[in-house]
Amino acid sequence: MHKTRRQFLKAASAAGIRLLTPLGFIGIVSADESASWFKNPLKLPALQTGRIYNDERVIDLSLGYGNSAFLGERTTPTVGINGAYLGPVIRVRQGENVALKVTNQLSEPSTLHWHGLNLPAAMDGGPHQVIDPGKTWTSAFKIHQGASTQWYHSHMYHRTGIQVYYGLAGLFYIDDPRSDALNLPSDYGIDDIPLVLQDRSFNEDGSFRYASSMRDRMMGMMGQLMLVNGTAFAHFKVNKRLTRLRVLNGSNARIYNLEFADQREFQQIATDGGLLQRPVSMRSIVLAPGERAEILVLFSPGDDVMLRHKPLPKRSSPSMGMMGNMMAANDQPFDIMRFETTPDLSGPQKIPTQLIEPRSWSVSEVARTRQFTLNMQMGMGMMRGGGFGINGRSMDMDRIDARVPLGDVEIWEIVNDSPMAHPFHIHNTQFRILDRGGKPPQANELGLKDTVLINAGERVRVITQFEHYADASSPYMFHCHILEHEDAGMMGQFVVVA
Ligand code: C2O
Ligand code: CU
Ligand code: CU
Known about the structure:
Elements: H1 2-13, E1 40-41, E2 47-48, E3 51-53, E4 56-68, E5 76-81, E6 89-93, E7 97-104, E8 113-115, E9 136-142, E10 148-153, H2 160-166, E11 169-175, H3 177-180, E12 192-200, H4 214-219, E13 225-228, E14 231-232, E15 234-240, E16 242-249, E17 256-260, E18 266-271, E19 274-282, E20 284-287, E21 292-298, E22 304-309, H5 321-330, E23 334-346, E24 366-376, H6 380-383, E25 388-390, E26 402-405, E27 409-417, E28 422-426, E29 432-436, E30 451-454, E31 459-465, E32 476-480, H7 483-487, E33 491-497
Parallel strand pairs: 1-15, 2-6, 4-7, 6-11, 12-16, 15-23, 24-27, 26-33
Antiparallel strand pairs: 3-4, 4-5, 7-9, 8-10, 10-11, 12-13, 13-14, 16-21, 17-20, 17-22, 18-19, 18-21, 22-23, 24-25, 27-31, 28-30, 28-32, 29-31, 32-33
Bound molecules: CU-O-CU linkage and copper (II) ion (2 copies).
One copper (II) ion (CU) binds at residues 113, 115, 425, 427.
């Protein structure tokens, strides 16, 4: 640990990204002196509300190449949406008709998927809605859901991992009157702050290093440098006492266990699908790839505090073996970003005690239960890059794995039959977690979710209902949100049928 820290300091003083080579850089920043490194103002994605035209909110998005300077003078070739890296925060209201016009200015096909949204399958932006270079695809649908922090990203089969890594992702906010009435902090960039967490690795020439090893492909791509909204060593000047953070785990594979360095309490107010019934007091929160959380943090004048990752408690499972050990070895504490208050901290500090009642379903309404087992084949299958599947089958674009009758309430039981954790995501719907390993979910998981972390060997049951849209010819996806696993086939397809 000490040796690597010295190496880091030496590297940094040489001011070259060249020296940010493999030695667990991300793991060593949690040091007393690290605060001085965190001085790059947190970048804020542009807010894009589009324009209203013929009773439709039209939002123009363009996928294109760019160059980004993350650290030092070296530039990194990146990909972005209306910019060099990542995309704008799209902001719409419940009840609106939206038209997202996506133009692909890349030289390879891509897609843009609206993660967390209830919408027609043909508008989903999944692997079947490919946008060829130079083409524009319009995704038009009505916003049924209430206030929430959703997101969007590339979903090009076999290329999702690399395209998202290079920057094809952004946030998608929905507002509604019930949430407006709660007077939560909602001044974008002032007291309502997006935090897109990503980890990245670099080659000596400054370019991103993506999945260069067997380990990257097996475990998913873990980077060595933390970016928040594309900012390395991010620093945020806190303006208001009560600040809302909308956190997205936009990483390809890394699971975060977030806490403040002083272990202060914060209130979680929303999960993937929207507001919780009431704020939940927390000191740390686990976010797996694809998951979002909104939290309220109370700051005092003079605060200077780091948001960091603390290693997840080690789970000993007899089946963990080599992979489990590799995971554990990788899990070191590291700093993510710094919050420093301005001297004239202002604003109210009242946190509502009640939020909204999230949608729920009762088991007595359930029409059927489906089972999904997540598989990773070990040994030689793995070495060839195969073995990632669900119910023993790898993704097939021409196979429908499940047909769900429109409006039926279903339980999906997900079993992790592998030595590592996988975040399981279902398109087109939000669900409630019924139980995790037979036990009821924690208070902060008692909200609407579209992605749920299934630990090694664990069984999780979720309850949901597929509403509004049926189309027997156009599938939605369910998959592991570790993008390298998804690209390798840990994904399946379902259709909703009338
Ligand atoms: Cu976030 Cu199928 O995706
Ligand atoms: Cu999705
Ligand atoms: Cu996985």
